[in-house]
Amino acid sequence: MSQLTSHIEQVAIEDLVKTYGTPLYVYSKASITEAFKRYQDAFGARKHLICYAVKANSNLSVIRLLADLGAGFDIVSRGELLRVLKAGGDPTKVIFSGVGKTREDLRFALETGIHCFNVESEAELYRLNEEAGKLGLMAPISFRVNPDVDAKTHPYISTGLRENKFGIPYDQAVRLYEAAHQLPHIAIKGIDCHIGSQLTELSPYCDAVDRMLKLIDALKEKGIELEHFDMGGGLGIDYQGETLITPQTLVDMIYEKLGDRDLMMTMEPGRSIVGDSGYLLTEVILTKENEGKHFAVVDAAMNDLIRPALYESWMRIETTQASDAPVHNYDIVGPVCETGDFLGKNRDLALSAGDILVVKQAGAYGFVMSSNYNTRGRAAEILIDQDQAYLIRERERLEDLFANEKVVSFDER
Ligand code: LLP
Asked: N6-(pyridoxal phosphate)lysine occurs at which residues (predicted)?
């Protein structure tokens, strides 16, 4: 039987649902704070920069909370940079990743004065040099090097293999660093890699560190000294009883391999900072049985939480109180007209219409990946601090969904 979740920190889920309705994303401040501190503690007094990957959960209040804890930020768009600035994050702690930065993106980040660009192609290097030149600035860079290791995670979230679109090929790295060294508006600062997400084994990280250190040493021999080494993000969380790598284990492994090389370590964790903090609350609209198969149709759908549909991710789904209803083996599905619209399959639950279900570990890649498919407004978001709930994003109103559209009339043509 499933577990019960009745409170988030000290706030009763029942009260949240009464006040804010469903579907509702709720985050725990204590959980985010603890997760971030685990990274800080892992580094201790060693020089480091933890750049939270904004893509995992980009709500302004979440960014603000992490900024207050001392975080830097890993961004992948101009929009994310604007969010960081709006939330009061420090631009000098921002690193800019992504394979498709436009000239506008580059200019905006140059003018803002970010910590580093993670350059992902030769074309981007020359473009960045040009744009920096026009502004009379130096662009601080790392190359994101693709170490060609198998992260042993879902293929859609594996990024460090030769066939993935990310980064520059390992074999080209020395040549590109030498080219960058000659450019008048490029300042080489570091090296970066990111091999995938939801990693639960240490060995791919070990292989990646070994390969990156080889490169760092080869560059030093050519007279190119780096200031920082960015190992990306990727630590997995416990969705379904996975054994986890702790930040401490990862950081200790890296420093052991670093030896006496004097490099500032940077990391870009996303999921492992915010994933556990989040809950998606949804109400059972009705239950139905088709030819012996039981369905609970809930008011959250794939547009609210796409992870189960997109990656067949298994996410914990719990009820908020004990029930006398019979236990059935349910597929928990949303109202969207797609067979792929499910939050969970084959869950033994005692359910009736009106019950509240709690999807756990929904703080990362949940709300941020939500859409308006089927003209469904996106959920509200709440941040809990002990016994207080703060509305950090209003529920979208249906009128908002077509506010930017125009009705073209052809009557008078
Ligand atoms: N750095 C870079 C360059 C990345 O591409 C990512 C994630 C991260 C850091 C943060 O990785 P994390 O620590 O969160 O694993 N939507 C998928 C996950 C996509 C991850 C994309 N890149 C999911 O829901 O599982």
From this structure: 55
Q: Can you tell me which residue has the tokens 């020359």?
A: 126
Nearest CA, atom 8, ligand 1: 233
Residue 39 near residue 267, CB atoms below 8 Å:
yes
Mind listing the pLDDT tens digit for each residue in 22-45? 999 999 999 999 999 999 999 999
Alpha helices in 153-270 (DSSP H): 173-182, 203-221, 247-258
Q: How far is the CA of 36 from the centre of ligand 1 (A)?
A: 16
Please give the helix or strand (H or E) that residue 344 lies within, else none: strand 342-350
Instruction: Point out the annotated binding site for pyridoxal 5'-phosphate.
Output: 234, 268-271, 365
Q: 233 C-alpha vs ligand 1 centroid, how far in Å?
A: 7
Residue with tokens 């067979």: 339
Q: What percent of the chain has pLDDT over 70?
A: 97
* Binding-site residue set for substrate: 271, 307, 311, 338, 365
Q: How far is the CA of 55 from the centre of ligand 1 (A)?
A: 7
Does 337 participate in catalysis according to the annotation? yes
State yes or no: cis peptide before 23, omega within 30 of 0. Answer: yes
pLDDT score, position 158? 66
Residue 198, Ramachandran bin (φ over 0: left; ψ between -120 and 50: alpha; else beta):
left
Domains and CATH numbers, the chain: 7-26+276-392 (2.40.37.10), 29-273 (3.20.20.10)
Helix (DSSP H) and strand (DSSP E) numbers for the chain? 12, 20
pLDDT, tens digit, for every residue of 369-379? 999 999 999 99
